[in-house]
Design goal:
It contains eleven helices and ten strands. The protein is an alpha+beta fold. The longest helix has 39 residues, at 252-290.
């Protein structure tokens, strides 16, 4: 059976009531994914090819600007629609899911939340249309989850800032047109590095002194470009400073925005995990029905049924976490960092476990790239690393519990 021959009727339906518009959105994404993404997934994965044309088509559909106002070129939809879009895309190709999630929730949303009107009008229409690709530059070689130890600096020189440093593991980084970039203010004082204000800037590809690396070779998500950013005396004017007023660079916005984006990013991982789990379950159910052993389909064996049942339990649990977050967002409530960490921790582990069980269920075929669960298993692993490792999530959850 080919990687995409599974019956679409096996796609689990949501246990939460969606509006007619949301159902239609899911239907349109599924049809687009079946037509434009599914036939190319294996080729993109093998060649580590960035599917620029598909990203631009997603922009034309409004999916590169799902949550942003129509007057700024967005689709004018809500967080529910964003989560559904990420879930549906991730079920077909996790690389596409993470490209869209990072572009929307980290880069573009940061500009929308923290930017002034001029910055919003300049950048969001281009990003929401898919004509420009966005990236978010926080992680450094020596400061991943410990963002407070970041060493990239911003030095004030008259009416400009001079940026020096480098970032790594930046999703969309190699091909990004717009980058939201974090730096520590260096005012020449003896203030310890960790206590220095954090500033955020909007950078454009091609700026003098800014170098974007080639994409890294990775274990999974081969079509999602991840790379490094190198800044050598990059000079920026005040119109590129996010969330601050000239003369008052207190850096509070930088720290608060990073924390807020951690919550959004970790919730997004849960939506991506749900899509991957659904695809693994769909492929596993169909294979169990088709694969014969001792003249019986293997679906009749209890050990196979146990694997399928555990996959379904994981799917339901992750779906409940995702839709709990959606309902909270609709009610104007936000997850705490600890809640987002717990959501991300469970969902990422569930995705990895389900993917490996899918490989096991397919046996030798599962280990072959042709049957796709091999790719899904590789893609799933990053969910336990991206947006903070499992161990960091545990730390954030425990800190919250111990502080009560």
């Amino acid at each position: 059976m080919s990687a995409h021959a599974a019956d679409s009727a096996l796609i689990p339906s949501h246990s939460f009531a969606l509006t007619e518009d949301q159902e239609q959105l899911c239907k349109e994404i599924r049809e687009f994914a079946a037509r434009e993404i599914a036939p190319n997934v294996m080729r993109w994965d093998e060649a580590s090819e960035f599917p620029l044309e598909v990203v631009q088509k997603l922009g034309a559909m409004g999916l590169m600007g799902v949550i942003f106002p129509v007057e700024l070129g967005g689709a004018g939809l809500g967080y529910v629609d964003y989560a559904l879009a990420v879930e549906e895309l991730s079920a077909v190709d996790g690389s596409i899911g993470i490209i869209v999630a990072s572009h929307n929730s980290l880069c573009t949303n940061h500009i929308f939340v923290a930017g002034n009107e001029e910055q919003k009008r300049k950048y969001i229409p281009l990003l929401a249309s898919g004509k420009w690709l966005g990236a978010w530059g926080l992680t450094e070689p020596g400061s991943g989850s410990d963002a407070g130890s970041a060493r990239t600096t911003a030095v004030r020189k008259g009416d400009r800032w001079v940026l020096n440093g480098n970032k790594t593991f930046i999703t969309n980084g190699p091909y990004a047109d717009t980058i939201v970039f974090y730096a520590k203010l260096d005012d020449g004082s003896d203030t310890p590095l960790r206590q220095r204000p954090v500033l955020t800037f909007i950078l454009d590809s091609g700026m003098p002194g800014l170098e974007q690396s080639k994409p890294f070779r990775k274990m999974g998500l081969h079509s999602s470009p991840t790379g490094e950013l190198f800044l050598t005396d990059v000079r920026v004017t005040k119109d590129r400073l996010l969330g601050e007023t000239e003369g008052q660079p207190g850096g509070r916005e930088g720290r608060e925005s990073a924390k807020g984006n951690f919550v959004t990013e970790r919730a997004g991982v849960a939506a991506m995990s749900l899509g991957l789990i659904e695809e693994c379950l769909k492929l596993s159910v169909q294979y169990a029905k088709d694969r014969m052993l001792w003249e019986r389909p293997i679906s009749e064996f209890q050990l196979i049924q146990l694997k399928l049942a555990r996959m379904e339990v994981a799917r339901l649990n992750v779906e409940n976490l995702v839709f709990r977050h959606i309902e909270m967002s609709a009610a104007g409530k936000s997850l705490t960092l600890a809640e987002a960490s717990a959501m991300k921790l469970y969902s990422a582990q569930a995705a990895s476990e389900v993917a490996m069980e899918a490989v096991q269920l397919l046996g030798g075929n599962g280990y072959m790239a042709e049957f796709r669960v091999e790719q899904l298993a590789r893609d799933a692993k990053v969910f336990q690393i991206y947006a903070g490792t499992d161990e960091i999530q545990v730390t954030h959850i425990a800190r919250d519990l111990l502080a009560r």
